[in-house]
Design brief:
By secondary structure, this protein is of the alpha/beta class. 42% of the residues lie in helices and 16% in strands. It starts with a helix and ends with a strand.
């Protein structure tokens, strides 16, 4: 009969084997769904990072569609911008890939490889080059893939602050006939630098609101962002009732 230490070691080895088997099956699943093992690994790491480092809670998970399009209409994810880790938290919860739009002046040095890997759509806010970013986003939506936008255009400058929404996202909605998935972000670290938030633990939360069909609402492009901004302000003024672990 095995002694206590032997049983403990065998138990640890069995636990390790089961963990590796589970992780290998997850990698296989992601590789089969996405066609890329590295992307699957990155998604799993993002989930672990969000759950344990930022203790992420999720509200309104039932509002997340099963795919990046619904009835042939692509999803445009729109969120308030609180910290540099915002895209990571949202992607860690959504089961489908999101191409995020990002200001080119926020990319940092020597990180071209990262933006290439994550397929970020860079937007030059200085003028002419912004058109190419809009074209890339519209092309992505036309192929039935999801795009993510932070319509404030910049990070908050004080806790719980919401900047006015810029009209660019309305152009994407009207030209792509996209459905909008609003995401309310709370509790992320308040840092002066967007990168600093990645290294500071938090109790962050995401609230997914129901999909918005602006075509069914009959709103003009000029009315879309004020309507959405008002919805965000109302939601931020309230505290979600229930949460689900990421």
């Amino acid at each position: 009969m095995a002694d206590g230490p032997t049983i403990l070691i065998l138990g640890l080895l069995l636990t390790l084997w089961l963990t590796l088997a589970w992780y290998a099956s997850r990698l296989y699943y992601n590789a089969r769904e996405e066609g890329d093992i590295l992307s699957g690994l990155a998604w799993d790491l993002a989930r672990l990072y969000a759950r344990f480092f930022h203790r992420l809670s999720v509200h309104g998970r039932e509002n997340i569609p099963p795919g990046p399009s619904v009835d042939g209409r692509p999803i445009l994810v729109i969120a308030n911008h609180t910290a540099g880790l915002d895209p990571i938290l949202i992607q860690a919860v959504c089961p489908w890939f999101i191409r995020w739009m990002m200001a080119a002046d926020m990319t940092g040095k020597n990180l071209e490889w990262l933006w290439h890997f994550t397929e970020v759509i860079l937007v030059d806010r200085s003028g002419k080059a912004e058109v190419s970013g809009m074209r890339a986003a519209l092309g992505t939506l036309a192929r039935g893939h999801a795009v993510g936008v932070f319509p404030e255009g910049k990070l908050r400058t004080s806790p719980n602050m919401l900047h006015p929404f810029m009209p660019g996202a309305a152009l994407l909605i009207s030209r792509s006939n996209a459905l909008v998935l609003p995401v309310i972000i709370r509790g992320t670290p308040f840092c002066q630098s967007s990168w600093a938030s990645l290294a500071e633990p938090s109790r962050s939360s995401l609230e997914f609101l129901p999909l918005i069909d602006f075509a069914a609402l009959g709103l003009r492009s000029s009315e879309m962002m004020p309507h959405l901004e008002a919805a965000f302000r109302d939601s931020l003024a309230q505290k979600p009732v229930a949460a689900l672990a990421a």
